[in-house]
Amino acid sequence: MKTYLVTGGAGFIGSNFIHYVLKNYQDAFIINLDKLTYAGNLKNLKEVEKKENYRFVKGDITDIPLVQSLFDQYPIDYVVNFAAESHVDRSIESPMEFVKTNIEGTFVLLDMAKKAWLIGEEWASGKKFLQISTDEVYGSLGETGLFTEETPLDPRSPYSASKASADLLVKAYYDTYKMPINITRCSNNYGPYQFPEKLIPLMINNCLNAKDLPVYGDGKNIRDWIYVEDHSSAIDLVLNKGIIGEVYNVGGGNERTNIEIVKTIINTIKELLPKEDSRYNAISQELIKYVADRKGHDRRYAIDSTKLQSQLGWSTSIPFEEGVVHTVKWYLDNSKWLEEITTGEYQVYYKKMYLDK
Ligand code: NAD
């Protein structure tokens, strides 16, 4: 029996990870601590909300008394820290929340875990703090090369700088106190429940509403894409088998330019949508609209996951083409989910980011 404190579990990757754990482990108990920002959505967890071995706690990871009370109340074995402000564009507009949640929040979790788990000079056995980080902490690559775990940190946006800062705090708790930690640094995820500000669901949503498809700069920035369930399997492996103190890169091995992604989305929607659907004819490459580039836009990310593969035997199981079909199909089947989160604040955000510029 393992008790997990999953933070940010109502977001995209966190909710997918909770589904993954509850599906694969009968004896897991999960506490999901989430502030429910614009990116947190309890509908992502509808199927599990009544389970005996799942609890939701609404709250902020920077709230010391609250985090401490969770450690007092539950025999927490694993902290899996997904909670973050996660969108680069928002970090460029308003970095403050990124510093608060991503850096201060990680510190609070580390410190409360240390209080609960360090007994005298000894760490209680079977405990681990897993920091969910990103390949963006490594900066930007040229046309060749891959990020390894030894690549120096060189974050270039307020988002990636806040994530790199959090990683360094986690590393410091290992170096200083020998806290049982791991850090995973993953490439771009896609799949069900992703908020439609990120590239793939943004393009799906805009296609379905016959809106312009905004592509930054020349559309040739490259990202390495991984299906979210493959990220969950990597996290699960690192949590249970990762060597204490180590960093593990997680990548899908699918490098694509942004414009390739957008065209793939258009083609996939057209394959899946019945020709009689009223939206069918409006969906075409003519919707693509190149817009002013993101400030400081990193050109290329690509990640070397050899360490995770050779040390822990991890591999991906969902090829990109298959993952994209699953994802588009999920959004088509869950149009209500999408509609509900693309009203109100989302419309204000969208106008500010893409229409007023
Ligand atoms: P997301 O924005 O979808 O979800 C973040 C969740 O954190 C939301 O549910 C939100 O309500 C919650 N949250 C925010 N601030 C909080 C706070 N102060 N206290 C408690 N909860 C708070 O993000 P995501 O895409 O699921 O990413 C999850 C993690 O994975 C992040 O740490 C991110 O840096 C990392 N990551 C994401 C990707 C990706 O491609 N999305 C890739 C690599 C790493």
CATH H-level superfamily title of the domain at 2-192 and 226-254 and 296-318: NAD(P)-binding Rossmann-like Domain
Q: Give me the oligomer status.
A: single chain
Overall radius of gyration: 20 Å
Tell me the β content: 15-25%
Helix content: 40-55%
Q: What is the β-strand count?
A: 14
Main sheet strand line-up: 3-2-1-4-7-8-12
- The fold-level CATH name of the domain at 2-192 and 226-254 and 296-318 is Rossmann fold
Just name the CATH architecture of the domain at 2-192 and 226-254 and 296-318. 3-Layer(aba) Sandwich
Catalogue the unreliable spans: none
Helices and strands, in order, run as EHEEHEHHEEEHEEHEEHEEHEHHHH
Query: Helix/strand/pairing class, anyone?
Result: alpha/beta
> How many DSSP helices?
12
What ligands does this structure carry?
A: nicotinamide-adenine-dinucleotide
Q: Please identify the top-level CATH class of the domain at 2-192 and 226-254 and 296-318.
A: Alpha Beta
Could you characterize the architecture of this molecule?
It holds the Pfam family GDP_Man_Dehyd. The chain is of the alpha/beta class. It has twelve helices and 14 strands. The protein has helices at 12-24, 64-73, 88-93, 96-117, 158-177, 199-208, 228-241, 258-272, 306-312, 320-333, 335-341, 345-355; strands spanning 2-7, 28-34, 54-58, 78-81, 118-119, 122-123, 128-134, 181-186, 188-190, 213-216, 222-227, 247-250, 255-257, 288-291. The strands form four sheets. Strands 3-2-1-4-7-8-12 form a seven-stranded parallel sheet, sandwiched between helices. Helix 1 (12-24) crosses helix 7, helix 2 runs parallel beside helix 4 and helix 8 (258-272) packs across helix 10. The longest helix has 22 residues, at 96-117. The N and C termini lie far apart (52 Å). Nicotinamide-adenine-dinucleotide binds at residues 7-8, 10-14, 33-37, 39-40, 60-62, 82-86, 101, 105, 132, 134, 163, 186, 188-189, 195.
